[in-house]
Amino acid sequence: MLRATGIQKSYGQLKVLKGVELSVERGEIVAIVGASGAGKSTLLHILGTLDSPDSGKVYIDNKDVFSQSSKELAAFRNKSIGFVFQFHNLLPEFTAVENVIIPGLIGGKEEKAVKQRAAELLEMLGIGLRKDHKPSELSGGEHQRVAISRALINAPDLILADEPSGNLDSKNALELHNLFFQLRKELNQTFIIVTHNNDLSAMADRRVEIRDGQML
Ligand SMILES: Nc1ncnc2c1ncn2[C@@H]1O[C@H](COP(=O)(O)OP(=O)(O)OP(=O)(O)O)[C@@H](O)[C@H]1O
């Protein structure tokens, strides 16, 4: 479902990605590992079309994603890709459940169905009782789980996650990892996950490493 080829990216003199190749099948769970500063987040941003490479191409469902106009790209991203990043960017004036439903409403889904799915996701992630709280009233781990629910609300084909269990204790991390596998089973979603968590990278179908700007 995804193919990245010849991806290069530099920041000034710093060559971070030097021709990365990656192919991911639909329904696959791939863990990306590598040392701090290896370029994992940089690659994830490019795969998610949030940043463009200096050279190279990304195909999602055989579509050359960067050949689209910025408007097409934004619509494609909202519908097809769910992001779980380290900085959650929850909207402070909205409650947990409201934060989760926003991408669903933007995507044109029916409000009642979106609300019900949001409540289910929050419940599955163990924060059903916190759904009417605002971000300032939630812990770091609770924020994380709201952001994960928000990423999943549109049932995107592709989920890109950067250290998704980074803020969670081992029990909640395991629940989250199990949720990913459950979603893959139910919806055949594809996951590309940057992680330092050995349990998660061991559970993944495949573990790839970025080293010296290349994918090993
Ligand atoms: N916007 C930017 N401007 C300049 N340098 C950047 C920028 N973003 C990232 N870098 C640099 O590029 C390199 C790769 O960063 P990146 O965040 O992709 O690494 P990472 O493998 O995800 O690291 P970590 O595991 O520590 O999160 C780092 O040296 C970082 O300092």
Overview of this protein structure:
It is built from seven helices and ten strands. The strands form two sheets. The chain has a six-stranded mixed sheet. A four-stranded antiparallel sheet has the order 2-1-4-5, with helices on one face. It is of the alpha/beta class and 216 residues long. The protein has one domain: P-loop containing nucleotide triphosphate hydrolases (Rossmann fold). One of its GO terms (molecular function) is ATP binding. This is ABC transporter ATP-binding protein.
Describe the structure concisely for a colleague.
The chain has helices at 40-47, 70-80, 96-106, 111-124, 140-152, 170-187, 198-203, and strands at residues 2-11, 14-24, 29-33, 55-60, 63-64, 81-84, 158-162, 190-194, 206-211, 214-215. By secondary structure, it is α/β, with parallel strands linked by helices. The structure holds adenosine-5'-triphosphate.
What pattern of helices and strands is seen along the backbone?
EEEHEEHEHHHEHEHEE
Q: In one word, what is the shape?
A: globular
Bound molecules: adenosine-5'-triphosphate
Q: Please provide the count of β strands.
A: 10
